[in-house]
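Retro notes - structure team

What went well: the batch runner handled both jobs without manual restarts.
What didn't: labels got mixed up in the shared folder, which is why I'm recording both outputs here explicitly, each with its sequence directly above its tokens.

Job 1
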Amino acid sequence: MGHAQYHAVQPFVRAVSGGISTAAIKQCSSPEAAKRLAERLVSEKKAIGALAYSRPGASSADEFAAPTFLARIGEVPETDDY
């Protein structure tokens, strides 16, 4: 079973109730690409916040280690809140 490093961005949007909600996770090709995408989503007002992260996992199974957070941009709830 091969191991891979996954890089992604979790965008956050304003919910109808006024709270913060998650949007679809976006995978990226590198840690730098994840950071740039997080910054762009917030600067272009496509999200109120974004969390860029990396995490190792098995490429053929749903086994993932805890994420390493790369960047918190804009309004991002505490990790335990989502």
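Job 2
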Amino acid sequence: MTDRTPEQLADLLADTYDAFTAHVTGLAPAGLEQPTRAPAWNVRQLLFHQLLDAQRALVALATPASGEPDVDDVTYWRPFLPSGGGDDAAHARFVVAVADAYDGPRGLLAQWTATAGAAGHAARAADPEGRIATQGHVLTVPDFVSTLLVEATIHLLDAHGAPPPAAVAHTRRVLEAIDGEPLPPGSDAEVVRLR
């Protein structure tokens, strides 16, 4: 689905994680408490949700799978769409409870920074011909990296940050493939924010 090489996708994921880190570490404590576009969470809580994704990336990239891929970077998202039947409310409550259990934001910021950096490195080091298992599915490494990139891009926009333009353009292409039709006209960032 992507017009990028596996190496370019991995570099773009690492760059997007770096942009996320720069954004959240540059915020004052009050900025971490501001609401996001994700209605259940403030910036700090959304950062914890994104930390879970970076941790999942590390586990998956270190655990090769031998089976055939059963989803790609587009079909992977079907269970997470509003019609997918997932329990979003339970996950939202879990994220709030755990994010709020940190003793101030410094520990969360440090954990995110270390984990995101390691996940970006792992994506760059992963075998582009490999397969991974995550959330009950098998994906190729490039498709998995694409899913991580889409999630990080959308959540950085949710947190009022600025992902790399190439990450936003990639995310727009994936969203259009999910919908099966072009998104409305407008800049990539504007259109992805509206989605």
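One thing worth noting from job 2: The chain has a mean pLDDT of 93.
We'll revisit the folder naming next retro.
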